[in-house]
From TrEMBL:
Organism, scientific name: Sphingomonas changbaiensis NBRC 104936
Keyword Magnesium: yes
Protein name per the record: Hopanoid biosynthesis associated protein
Domain of life: Bacteria
Spans traversing the lipid bilayer: none
GO biological process, one term: carbohydrate metabolic process
PANTHER family: CARBOHYDRATE DEACETYLASE (PTHR31609:SF1), YDJC DEACETYLASE FAMILY MEMBER (PTHR31609)
Length: 232
């Protein structure tokens, strides 16, 4: 989140870990814009933050040319901020999976390749989520592949957001579907902090990721890596 309050700290830490695959997490809802709020008035509320009503905002950027122009400008500004970090762009996605919106996906595909975008998430999780969500995610996956993007075949952990603990991680790793799978998790050192989601067990998700036994299990018969590692 290049407009996040601790973005500079995150960039500094990432700079010490060259093998870490750092992606751009575009924020168009529940956050603050990269551009001055006066430049994107149709995307923000009276406080200058992005609108929290995704349905209303989604309709506006689909139906209103002015809102679409502001959307494109904001997305370009966030890509520009990421480029300024000097970090290689491993992948792209959007907060709240807002990139499944066809207009937002179009904007990202129009802008991202100029900044080195070669991989993107499609939130497809086998047997999880509602039919409509799976439909939009699958359509996005197909569209991204037609555009030459690397896209995992599926995600695991989306349905367990905030509760992807050791037991669930073990079950996931022992029942992976064939193909490329993105492990989707929200690790943190504390369960409650500014901006944390209510009820999320962030520490349990971190414990699952650093569990040595699970790491050995993941490496058995599988290849691990960031998005860039699978670009061929």
């Amino acid at each position: 989140m290049v407009t996040g309050t601790v973005a500079a700290d995150a960039v500094a830490r990432a700079g010490t870990m060259p093998s870490l695959g750092v992606g751009l997490h575009l924020v168009l809802v529940e956050g603050r814009p990269a551009l001055p709020p006066s430049d994107v008035p149709m995307l923000v509320d009276e406080t200058g933050a992005f609108c929290r009503d995704m349905a209303r905002l989604g309709l506006a950027i689909f139906a209103n040319p002015s809102a679409r122009r502001q959307l494109y400008a904001e997305i370009e500004a966030q890509f520009t901020l990421f480029a300024a970090t000097g970090l290689p762009l491993d992948h792209v996605n959007a907060h709240k999976h807002f990139h499944v919106h066809p207009t937002i996906a179009s904007a990202i595909l129009a802008i991202g390749p100029r900044y080195g975008m070669k991989a993107m998430r499609a939130p497809v999780e086998r047997g999880r989520g509602g039919a409509l969500v799976r439909l939009w995610a699958t359509l996005l996956q197909r569209r991204l592949r037609r555009a030459g993007m690397l896209v995992p075949d599926q995600i695991v952990g989306l349905a367990w957001s905030g509760a992807f603990d050791r037991d669930r991680m073990r079950r996931a790793l022992t029942s992976l579907s064939p193909g490329l799978t993105e492990i989707y998790t929200h690790p943190a050192a504390e369960d409650v902090y500014p901006g944390s989601a209510r009820g999320y067990r962030y520490r349990d998700e971190l414990a699952a990721l650093v569990d040595r036994d699970l790491g050995t299990l993941a490496r058995h018969g599988s290849e691990l890596g960031n998005f860039t590692a699978f670009m061929q």
